[in-house]
Amino acid sequence: MEKKIILTGDRPTGKLHLGHYVGSLKRRVELQNSGKFDKIFIEIADAQAITDNAHNLEKVRQNVLEVALDYLSCGIDPNKSTIFVQSQIPELCELTFYYLNLVTLSRLQRNPTIKEEIKLRDFQTSIPAGFLTYPVSQAADITAFDANVIPVGDDQLPMIEQTREIVRSFNNLYGDILVEPKELLPDNNSCSRLPGIDGKAKMSKSLGNCIYLSDEPEVVYKKIMSMYTDPTHLKISDPGKIEGNTVFTYLDAFCKDEHFKKYLPEYNNLDELKSHYQRGGLGDVKIKKFLNEIIQEELEPIRKRRKQFEKYIPEVYKILKEGSEKARIIVAKKMDEVKSTMQINYFDDFNLINDQTEKYSSNSDEVANKKKVK
Ligand code: TRP
Asked: Is there an atom of ligand 1 within 6 Å of 91 CB?
């Protein structure tokens, strides 16, 4: 049976937030503990982070640890999942360099996530070439491990699609050795892309609209109380809108029926709460306080575990080092396979050496013969 291999990762450009958590982290921990996967690799994609932080390396350097702490505190267990740091595996760059020939510039420019990111970063016409091509390096990350299950949020779909295209070209051109990956999206739609607390499409550090996994309870409370709701819902008695109302989007992502019993027993479920809000007579403060209880309950164990790991920072670096060493062995093996499939393994290719020898020996025979004839 085909092995089930998971690979996923994050750029270390900041602490991880609730969007990362529902979109991917929480799922990873569940997948890890399900025992259904043969191998799980989790990448701290620092080289990818550098593609738009070349002038800000210190930020990346600091956040490698922050992301590792976030992983561990969410329940990623280094005995079950290999956590590694991208830059420590030089073969990934090597692989990227060859894959770059299998995509066109216009294909890269069409990638919708890249387009959106370019707009957000205001690169205009000064797009770093490394940034535009990072999806190719991500294809290398995925294929170097023969990963076939990629748990991600929906913003990563274009990357997986691009990876599949590269895999097909490679396999057609050189030989069938790369595995086509499949995305694994969150089953709950609201988890695919959690909006920022300001209601903007995405939680993002640069927009300053995130709730971080490591935020203290008071900070979380303040952020939730300031959330964007329905700007036309002015008085409690006004009817309110659910669509585009951030509090309800978050409730869709986090709320379970048992939360009502615990924190808001006047309602049985989210549908009842929603219809009351739509009818009018339900204030924003009440729904925000309810959401706060739920989010605090979810974050509390994560925060506690983080405080534990923060006491053992050298150990955390050791986990990353050992994970990177383990990952490198696997990637180096794959790189050997790639090189021999592309036939750029000259020194191990005895057929090549023999053929060339023969070619030149017959050549020199001919030359010798001609000379003889004269
Ligand atoms: N691009 C991803 C992000 O921005 C991070 C990432 C890097 C990744 N390598 C990956 C995700 C491989 C999945 C698989 O979040």
From this structure: no
Q: What percent of the chain has pLDDT above 90?
A: 84
pLDDT tens digits for range 152-199: 888 899 999 999 999 999 999 999 999 999 999 887 766 667 899 999
Answer for the pair 13, 205: CB distance below 8 angstroms, yes or no. Answer: yes
The DSSP secondary-structure symbol of 245 reads -
As a whole-number percent, the residues of the chain with pLDDT over 70 amount to 96
Distance CA 269, CA 256 (A): 8
Decide: 20 in ligand 1 pocket, CB within 6 A. Answer: no
CA distances (Å), origin 136, targets 104, 148, 200? 11, 16, 28
Q: Structure tokens of 163?
A: 């990876």
Tokens 């809000």 belong to residue: 277
At 189, phi and psi to the nearest 5?
Answer: -55, -40
pLDDT at 368: 57
Q: Is 46 in the pocket of ligand 1 (CB under 6 A)?
A: no
Cβ of 43 closer than 6 Å to ligand 1, yes or no, is yes
Distance from Cα 200 to the centre of ligand 1, integer Å? 21
**Cα 217 to Cα 254: distance, rounded to the nearest angstrom:** 17
3-state helix, strand, coil in the chain (%, to 5): 60, 5, 30
Residue closest by Cα to atom 13 of ligand 1: 8
